[in-house]
From TrEMBL:
Role description: Catalyzes the reversible oxidation of malate to oxaloacetate.
Catalytic residues in the record: 186 (proton acceptor)
Binding site for substrate: 91, 97, 130, 161
InterPro entries: L-lactate/malate_DH (IPR001557), Lactate/malate_DH_C (IPR022383), Lactate/malate_DH_N (IPR001236), Lactate_DH/Glyco_Ohase_4_C (IPR015955), Malate_DH_AS (IPR001252), Malate_DH_type2 (IPR010945), NAD(P)-bd_dom_sf (IPR036291)
Lactate/malate dehydrogenase C-terminal domain mapped to chain residues: 155-322
Pfam families: Ldh_1_C, Ldh_1_N
Family: Belongs to the LDH/MDH superfamily. MDH type 2 family.
Organism: Nocardioides marmorisolisilvae
Single Gene Ontology MF annotation: L-malate dehydrogenase (NAD+) activity
Residue positions binding NAD(+): 11-17, 104, 111, 128-130
EC number: 1.1.1.37
Gene Ontology biological process terms in this record: malate metabolic process; tricarboxylic acid cycle
Protein name, UniProt field: Malate dehydrogenase
Length: 327
């Protein structure tokens, strides 16, 4: 009998949580392996979370082996193999960038320390809560006994959005589109790169054959999709963010498909001139729970300028949280 995969989800009573928990419980990450959910929320949200747990119970998911909820990270993270850090402090009215970074700093320093103390030896940590890259950096710096490679921030939603835009433009099936890359920060400065992507085995930029579309439509549409969804729906993307969170965790634990790669924000080793130590999005392949940055891609001036702009923003965020004493 395989032991259940213990999966922690923070911000479990939030919008993303309301999609994510049901996807995880029905096997989107672990397949047929049983999962145990360990759900963290702040105290005032625990009652709402109890309601979500009632609904999870009512689904009678065959592979849901148990659910624990609470507001103390040291209890909830105990023995977890996978921690999905979704809960974060959104920017409120009148809040400055510095206020946002310190509010989230408090959350991610505490959660990093708790993971360091009680998570399973094989733990993998995926950060969805924004500012995701910098929150991941804060968590990993506060978890000195966990290898930094075990932390990543979510850019898979951006990656999936890029695939969807390419499919719409070319009429190709999403399954024919490979090797899309998101570089940099999960923010409006991100660089969705289709110059190394393939559509049905052919270079995507050549299939599209329209540089103006790439510059004036594709890149900004992917980078600003979050805002477009807020405009249309009145709240931020949630089901798609949950789906991407599952995709990212599933591929990390089980391996990325042959002949393709995925985008993940991981700690830079200096590849492609991204300053070492920043949590930045790269093209990666995964296998056996480990990731590797795809090497040897040619970066032309167009791509270089965009990667540099996004990583400069990440360096600024790192400097700001360093000044705040969070890392
Ligand atoms: P919600 O505000 O609906 O839910 C967040 C939940 O986190 C709330 O229930 C809150 O009580 C909880 N929370 C706050 N502090 C906590 C703490 N210290 N411990 C545990 N729980 C805590 O937000 P939702 O729409 O679910 O989005 C969650 C986060 O994902 C936000 O930061 C959002 O910006 C981010 N996103 C990231 C995306 C990505 O691609 N990386 C895309 C979607 C989303 O915008």
């Amino acid at each position: 009998v395989t032991a259940p995969l213990k999966v922690a989800v923070t911000g479990a009573a939030g919008q993303i949580g309301y999609s994510l928990l049901f996807r995880i419980a029905s096997g989107a990450i672990a397949g047929d392996r049983p999962v145990e959910l360990r759900l963290l929320e702040i105290e005032p949200a625990l009652k709402a979370l109890e309601g979500v747990v009632m609904e999870l119970d009512d689904c009678a998911f065959p592979n849901l082996a148990g659910i624990e909820i609470g507001h103390e990270p040291e209890k909830i993270f105990d023995g977890v193999n996978l921690a999905l850090l979704v809960g974060a402090r959104p920017r409120g009215p009148g809040m400055e960038r510095g206020d946002l970074l310190s509010a989230n700093g408090a959350i991610f320093t505490a959660q990093g320390k708790a993971l360091n103390a009680v998570a399973a030896d094989d733990v993998r940590i995926g950060v969805t809560g924004n500012p995701a890259n910098t929150n991941a950096l804060i968590a990993l710096k506060n978890a000195p006994d966990i290898p930094s490679e075990r932390f990543s921030a979510l850019t898979r939603l951006d990656h999936n959005r890029a695939i969807s835009q390419l499919a719409a433009k070319t009429g190709a099936a999403v399954t024919d589109i490979k090797k899309v890359t998101i570089w940099g920060n999960h923010s409006a400065t991100q660089y969705p790169d289709l110059f190394h992507a393939e559509i049905g085995g052919k270079n995507a930029a050549e299939v599209v054959g329209d540089q103006a579309w790439v510059e004036d439509y594709f890149i900004p549409t992917v980078a600003k999709r979050g805002a477009a969804i807020i405009d249309a729906r009145g709240s931020s993307s949630a089901a798609s963010a949950a789906s991407a969170t599952c995709d990212a965790a599933r591929d990390w634990l089980n391996g990325s498909p042959a002949g393709d790669w995925v985008s993940m924000a991981v700690v830079s080793d200096g590849s492609y001139g991204v300053p070492e130590g920043l949590v930045s999005s790269f093209p990666v392949t995964t296998s056996g729970g480990n990731w590797e940055i795809v090497q040897g891609l040619e970066i032309d001036d167009f791509s270089r300028a965009r990667i540099d702009a996004s990583t400069a923003e990440l360096a600024e965020e790192r400097d700001a949280v360093t000044e705040l004493g969070l890392i």
